[in-house]
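Need residues for this backbone.
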């Protein structure tokens, strides 16, 4: 299986695991403490991953290759996880919360892709975006 398909399968599986596990974070658990444990385990997993994908020129040079995106990603991850902990604690269903967030983010990323990354969309892409927006409206009708 090519990296193109295997990588999307990893992302899909991981996203499913993410929502299931965060939904089961105990309601009385402190979100900050929960995330500290999460990130400590994640750091350990990243160290193990690093052993299987070693740096070509050492850690010092590897760190020099990084930019602001690593710090921005940290803020995004904490915001995402605190957001979903609170979303599920406030009563959202796992099936609806993920759909609402993912479709909304996808639609909001369209102008980012077009304006900042020079991506091109086809007419069929725009039709699909319209269907997504319609679906977002429909899943939120009470």
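Answer:
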């Amino acid at each position: 299986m090519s990296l193109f398909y295997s990588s999307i399968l990893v992302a899909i599986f991981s996203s499913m695991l993410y929502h299931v596990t965060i939904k089961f974070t105990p309601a009385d658990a402190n979100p900050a403490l929960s995330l500290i444990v999460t990130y400590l385990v994640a750091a350990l997993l990243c160290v193990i991953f690093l052993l299987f994908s070693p740096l070509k020129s050492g850690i010092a040079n590897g760190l020099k290759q990084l930019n602001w995106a690593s710090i921005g990603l940290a803020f995004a991850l904490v915001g995402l996880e605190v957001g979903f902990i609170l979303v599920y604690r406030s009563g959202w269903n796992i099936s609806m919360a993920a759909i609402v967030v993912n479709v909304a983010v996808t639609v909001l990323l369209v102008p980012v892709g077009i304006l900042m990354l020079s991506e091109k969309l086809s007419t069929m892409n725009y039709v699909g975006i319209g269907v997504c927006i319609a679906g977002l409206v429909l899943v939120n009708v009470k």
